[in-house]
Amino acid sequence: MNADTRVLLSLDEALARLAAGAAPHALRRTESVSTFDALGRVLAAEVLSALDVPPADNSAMDGYALHAASVPAAGTVLPVSQRIPAGVPGLALRPGTAARIFTGGQVPAGADAIVMQEQCEPLPGDGLGSVRVDVVPQHGQWIRRRGEDVRLGSAVLHRGARLTPQALGLAASVGAALLPVVRRPRAALFSTGDELMMPGQPLRPGAIYNSNRYMLRGLLQAAGCEVTDLGIVPDRLDATRMALREAAAANDLIVTSGGVSVGEEDHLKPAAQAEGRLEQWQIAIKPGKPLAFGEIRRADGTAALLLGLPGNPVSSFVTYLLCVSTVLRVLQGAPAALPVGLTLRADFDWPRPDRRREFLRVRVNAGGGLDLYPNQSSGVLTSAVWADGLVDNPPDQAIGRGDTVQFVSLAELISR
Ligand code: AMP
Ligand code: MG
Questions:
Q1: For the whole model, what pTM was predicted?
Q2: Which of 91, 103, 201, 322 gives the lowest tally of CB atoms within 10 Å of its CB?
């Protein structure tokens, strides 16, 4: 990295540089965790199925298993030769009979159709009695086929995938009791700014409450990081250097907020340069133009990554979602690409676009279009709470009511 550059980058270029800078830091240690405890973790290897799922043909209905050809006409009566609840394999079906069967029950050899109980009338008699079948069954109906969900030997989950609740269910369905996951990234967080105070303290004149600390901590936690929160670091070079050193010693990534704008009293840059190296970027996006990217040396010669986010809360939020999450994904071996957006209709006008690529806070309305939060200022955190997504608007592109735009959901960005 060049120590003293201030470059205007496209977002794509910035993300490519972040990914390239993070790649050598990829976490190599993996661990095996109980599938019970693996929610939100990132898979370190693919999960292969050691069996077919379902393992055998089974009934999708409560009803009767039979050979379709033995019911040539509605109203045919067949003796009931056995009873097959779920979990108990039955015997081969005696020709010319039906088996009482329940949902999930294994289809007996010789049966090729299930008739649901609503289309049958049980008739009393010796043993299990008989059944009148009031429809002509189709071959194969209401049978869930062996392996129709998962084939033996196939990969059900892939390396780099973040484990969702449904992924844990799928892993369990193929019998995986343990899952190989990447160790959690360790992230240190601190805020810079002498104007910052913590909620719980009365606000002194000129001060504001530190919102980024809560928001960024939450974002890092939502991404599965072990977070070390170093609080507010005073706007002083020595204090900033000390915080960086402490953070680098025990963490993979250091995230800071504030102190990266152009022309401000900027201690992050000299501190990072004294403790490692730093590039200050201007990314052609709005909100969130300034970003610092660097490395802080550790005593053993290795280094922690540093990402300095802008202080304005919405800028911090958006640059986290675009940039920090990309770095975290690369560290964990997950694909770096941003989520694919949706093309949706704008139900608003945006007549004076910026020269930079803009990320507008919007909400999907009941008509399937997008409403715009009226105040798009980078200090207005209300917009990020009101919104359920961002419009990714190209540079200089005016938006008129009815135009289609690219929408990315916040839920998807936060959980990626
Ligand atoms: P800076 O990036 O330090 O120039 O800060 C830009 C703006 O964001 C200023 O108005 C700061 O007061 C505000 N700001 C910086 N850090 C925070 C924070 N942790 N929470 C809320 N606002 C902040
Ligand atoms: Mg500041």
A1: 0.90
A2: 201
Tens-digit pLDDT profile for residues 188-206:
999 998 899 999 999 999 9
- Which residue has the CA at smallest separation from atom 14 of ligand 1? 311
Does ligand 1 come within 6 angstroms of the Cβ of 288? no
User: Percent of the chain, pLDDT > 70?
Assistant: 97
pLDDT computed for residue 7 by the predictor: 63
β 303-309/178-182 pair status = unpaired
Q: Which of 201, 212, 282, 314 to mutate to test the pocket of ligand 1 (most atoms within 8 A of CB)?
A: 212
Taken in order of first residue, the domains within the chain and their CATH numbers are: 8-29+183-331 (3.40.980.10), 32-52+153-182 (3.90.105.10), 58-144 (2.170.190.11), 342-411 (2.40.340.10)
pLDDT reported for residue 52: 97
- Reduced to 3 states (helix: H, G, I; strand: E, B; else coil), residue 220 is helix
Cα–ligand 1 centroid distance for 190 (angstroms): 12
pLDDT band at 267 (very low <50, low <70, confident <90, very high): confident
pLDDT class of 4 with cuts at 50, 70, 90 = very low
Q: Give burial (CB, 10 Å; 0-12/13-18/19+) of 282.
A: middle
Q: Could you report the per-residue pLDDT of 277-291, keeping only the tens digit for each?
A: 999 999 999 999 999
3-state secondary structure of 319: helix
pLDDT for the residue 235: 86
**Residues paired with residue 187 on neighbouring β-strands, in sequence order:** 227, 253
- C-alpha distance from residue 78 to each of 75, 84, 164 (Å): 10, 16, 47
Distance 191 CA to ligand 1 centre (A): 9
Report how far residue 184's alpha carbon sits from residue 105's, in angstroms, rounded to the nearest whole number.
Answer: 41
- Provide mean pLDDT across the span 76-105: 96
Q: Which ligand is in closest contact with the Cα of 310?
A: 1
Rounded distance from Cα 194 to ligand 2 centre (Å): 7
- Please give the distance, rounded to the nearest whole angstrom, from the Cα atom of residue 58 to the centre of ligand 1: 61
Which uninterrupted H or E stretch holds 101? strand 98-101
Ligand 1 atom 17 nearest Cα = 311
Residue 132 CA, ligand 2 centroid: distance in Å: 81
pLDDT given for residue 2 in this prediction = 42
State whether the beta carbon of 195 lies less than 6 angstroms from ligand 1. Answer: yes
Contact indicator for 132, 77 with CB cutoff of 8 Å: yes
